[in-house]
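DM from R.C. (forwarded with permission)

"hey, sorry to bug you on a friday — could you get me a structure for this? deadline for the figure draft is monday and I only need the backbone to look sensible"
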Amino acid sequence: MWILLSDRLLALFVTDVNLLTMASIFKGWGYVLVTAVILYWLINNNFTALQNSQRALEHSYDATLEGWARALDLRDKETENHTQRVTQLTLAVASGWE
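My reply, with the result:
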């Protein structure tokens, strides 16, 4: 709708056909540029929000696992801190494979 109305408004002020064609081309490229900038901004914001949500989910997952490990350690005093040692060893092995 805006493009149609702006074409008619442009035609009111520009009478030369060649100049009208050139102005319409620049106006079209301007619309494409503005649309691209808006889409980039929207996609970037959504991507950033998605990354933040993923980090929060990973943190929650890690906190849950740590809570379960602490609960296991509290339950059995003979193997206290065993889960932390196994976790540290697993992380050390896994980091060597990256």
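R.C.: lifesaver. The radius of gyration is 30 Å.
me: no worries. The CA atoms of residues 9 and 90 lie 69 Å apart.
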